[in-house]
Batch of 2 targets.
Target 1
Amino acid sequence: MLAPSVPPPPVRPRHPPKIQVRDLRLSYGGQEAIRGISFDVDRNDVFAIIGPAQSGKSSLLKCLNRTIELVPGAKQSGTITIDGLNVDELPSVYNLRRRVGMVAPLPVGLPLSIFDNVAFAPRAAGFKDKHELAALVEQCLRQAALWDEVKDRLHTLGTKLSGGQQQRLTIARALSHEPEILCLDEFSIAIDPVTTMRIEDVLKELKQRMTIVLVTNLVQQARRLASRTMFLWNGEIVEEGPTDVLFSDEPQSRKTYDYVNGIFG
Amino acid sequence: MNLPPAPVAGTRPLSVSTGSPRGPRRSRAAVLGESVLEWVIRLCGISAILFVFGIFFFVLREGVGFLFGGLKLGEFFFSTEWYPTSLSNVRYGVLALIVGTFSVTGLAMLIAVPFGLGAAIFVSEFCSDRWREGLKILIELLAAIPSVVWGFIGISVMNPLIQEVFHVPVGLNVLNGALLLALMSVPIMVSIGEDALKAVPDSFREASLAMGATRWQTVRRVLLPAAKNGLLAAILLGVGRAVGETMAVLMATGHAVNIPKSPFDPVRTLTATIAAELGEASVGSPHYQVLFIIGILLFTITFAVNLVADLVVKGTAKG
């Protein structure tokens, strides 16, 4: 609806990956943050990225929607393709960013009303019809499990909500441009465990319709949600594979075992 | 060794503790010096208040005798006849002067607000770091030009330019003064407006851009609403500057008591009247006193503008 250039992908039993990353390198002013990584993310899947701070997880997400271009001094090489198309060669970066929703670690409530927060991206994309907009806002807030709490005060400031509500508001906002890929960067860092579980339930729902890339510091969260997990360390992949394998007693790497079992890191 | 008793929480702030447990206590001179310094600083702060009240009191004292004895307030505010030195037909109507002040200020703001805010947005959001530094230096330089120099530019540059471009007989008029005032208040608006925009957290910009908004959409839909109080304060401070400006408007507006019918008519402002006539009015005469009443009027206007600006800025702090 909002990304008219991309028709919904045909459902096939064994389809090509949604995202392909090949030999991605990234440096900030000469200092390497990502050192040549390659991986695939399947369609309608939850793909978790774990690893300690400074391992390049957030930078990787920024490469996916090309917001890395806004960071001064950042230099990127390698290719990222979505649906087989190189993101660097797409005609409209704005369109790309609408296709790749992003939820930041700390909820950023724009200084607008709850309604305007969710309606922001559709309006920026040129969405005008008031009734459709209202319906879309309601749908997104429902999907983010926030509607019942805010339906009576849609026109109060979004920044007045509690931390957990604001985080769900940013998820509703990310859904408002109907992304095919939803990236979440440590979404539970500022919210309590109960709210975290509510959002995790939301994510399980959303998986039916979109591909989710989940960066998390909570290894158990990856275990609960993701079918594949990647363990990044210092800008390099230590191990990438089915989540069951990474969390088993015999992952490929000893380091993985130690990390997911809390022996270090 | 006996340890000294641990300080009980709340009896003495920890920051006043005097050195390490074994070190010497602070000397009496140091303690005295500090309290003297504290008083000096307090005095400086209070003196600012004293000066403001002192000025207001002085201006009021010079004008109050005539304000309550002799001046017809109806004539003062609603007559355009300003003949303060006439022997047979003395008139003290300042309506034309008030209209003069507001017409020049209003036109100046029509020019300066879009320019000033546009420049603030450009400097803060769109320009590269190197350009930004250069531009800011230039803008600050613009603020440092003395107003008499602006007046000189008004007479020697703008005057013939306006005559030529608009084919009018006189170039010293509302438009001339307004252009100068606009140039003088733009630097204030740019630097305060830029501060207001810079105060908006970067996370707002990132969130907006990550949702596929363009830079301009980010400015219009996120930054302007977020910074609106600061930007409004910038505008009001620019207005205050323009209302109070004297020398440039005295030189550039033609200095004729006149209600303007177009931007090409000459006018006279409240400030310019005081500047031009106070030296020639004999001390204590009604003319002298009425000039001070004009001063009170100006004081009230700028005070109101500053107060509104202040309240608006307080609004920002509350968020």
Note: Chain A touches chain B at residues 65, 67, 70, 94-98, 101-102, 104, 106, 108, 110-112, 120-121, 123-125, 159, 170, 173-174, 176-177 (CB under 8 Å).
Target 2
Amino acid sequence: MIFQPAILALLLASLLTTLALGGGAVFGARVLRHWDPTNGAASQLRLERGTYLTSTLVGFALAVQGVALVLFVFNADRMASQFVGAMCAAGTLRVNGFGMPALTLRIGVFFAACLWLALDHLDSQGYDYPLIRVKYALLLAVLPLALAAAGLELAYFLNLRADVVTSCCSRLFTPANAGIGGDLAALDPALALGLLFGGLTLLLSLGTLLVTRGPGRGNWVAWTYSGANVVTFVLGMAGVISVVSPYVYENPNHHCPFCLLKPEYGFIGYALHGPLFAATAAGLAVGPLAWGRHFPSLRTVSPRLFRRMALLSMGACALFGMVSGAIILRSGLVLFP
Amino acid sequence: MIRWFRVQVLMIDYTLASMARRKARNLGLLLVYAAILFVLASVTLFTGALREEAVRALVGAPEVTVQRMVMGRHALIDRDGLEALRAIRGVQWAEGRLWGYFYDTANGANYTMIVPSGGIVPSGGREAVAYGAPPEPGFVRIGGGVARSRGVAPGDWLFLLNPQGRLFKLRVEAVFPSASELVSADLVVLSEADFRAFHTLPEGVFTDLALGVRNPREITTIVEKAALVLPDCRFITRRDILRTYDALFDWREGILLALMGGAILAFMILAWDKASGQSPEERREIGILKAIGWETGEVIRARLWESALVSLFAFLAGYLLAYLHVFFFSAGLLRPVLQGWAVLYPEIHLTPRIDGARVLTLFLLTVGPYVAATLVPIWRAAVVDPDTVMR
């Protein structure tokens, strides 16, 4: 099944991303070993020039990852018609054991690349590149993740077999099913709703505190905000599966987060997942950006950048909450009589 | 944020002016880029439209088709099988179908001969063309391809020699409209009596059986039950056929795109070469920009905008031309490769449709490699010392 146009495009995207991040990581290793801003030698000048290429390469990798992530899910949904038992992307991704891990790692690489680019932007604002070692160490850590994602994706596509009977989303996201999908579907709707909107309210309050009062001593508010974004991402996904999805389908037993991306539901999934992903990517960057103010060359630029990023994250978070709320209010389903 | 947008607009403005100073080079690149996109987009649009037509054509197909097999070959099935299937709970209707192929020595074409049972022939989604009731004995309704090939019109006689050499003289009652040609081009619709006489078929046998199932979720169970009743038959469900079509068209498209990988690679080399081979004026321009205070990052961004704008124009131009080629000129350049060939090939008019996943696929397959190929040359050009290039 490897000769499918979308699969070829996704493999090409994986190859380009791996090459870009690989090139960046090789350069990063040289930076970690030889970087010395006090040295005026030609080798140091070459390293300084090379940082521009690495930034461009990682930016390119992120853009390709973003498009490929959407295509990966979109294509999985479209290919559901070719597998017995599959009704949407959930079924296609379960044709073999590599689909779901490949998707999860792709999402991880996407967030890691966003974080790296935020750090890189901050670092490039300082005349002495104060974060250069940190950001290249991070790039070296991201590379194995990207390689694993590319490997899993290749394994997934190579092992796609049309004669395999897979399971549809109604079996995967059902309370009777063991596993995380089943657990989330079994979550009490009232509790899930409370956690979702409670989490969003707490996050927005923390964001307001951060923007108005600053990141606090030891940067704890900013770090907490970044951590809270990860928790909110998990709560958001849990909320979508356990309570928002049934409102979209107007069926208390249908919990699939992938069917939301289908045209018959007006592609509402993109309006839900898009802001949640944007909020998490921006929120993750807030902590490191605020931490930058401890460096003399970033003292003025860091507060401006972390505030901007926090506001972006809060805006996206609020949008996610509003879309979820609108779905619940407009739905014909009554879960709480 | 507003300031950021204003900076980007100014950057685009500068990039467009800079590109206009090197018209010939950029136009050449744009033409090659758009040509590659045109070919790739034509492939994806055409296969996508063919798949859609196939899906539409199967809308009227029965849920399950039952074919008797003898020595691994399709054989005639008798009326007893039909009665056995009707007795299965959940079967809404069951009927015997009479159809077959006939090689016409007069023009070297193959016809599909069919006795209608009142079902419909979907016509590529435009309007459903009914087979209608079976014609009276001595009359036929024919497809546009047969009519063209034999030069007959409604009211004329159609002379056919059956496989045993007996001449049949049949009056053409009607020709199926061109909108249904994808499925009706080679059709000859005739009465049951004429069909049996033409093919010397005994009474009580059929080509295959068709089943209607009230609840689509029960299809698998009904097929399992039917397989026990008729163990020498194979059962083909509509979903099986759709799945096969999907996989087949995707595979054909993928193979063609993979073969065009060479062209994409050649284009990447061209893009790399074009981006690397800068004229002295370009180098001086970058030197001046840096001398007046542009950062290396800003020069890179301006050059990336150039790549993005070239990609955007090429993508739009290539895609638009491909759209016109496929949907207004019936993909004349690709049909022989993707569709196959036959004496009575239908003249089809495909339904225009743009699929988001295909656009994204094409974007990744073309813009991704192009931008990747220009990244290193752009960086090389941007990091030069201003005094070196201006001197």
Note: The radius of gyration of chain B is 30 Å.
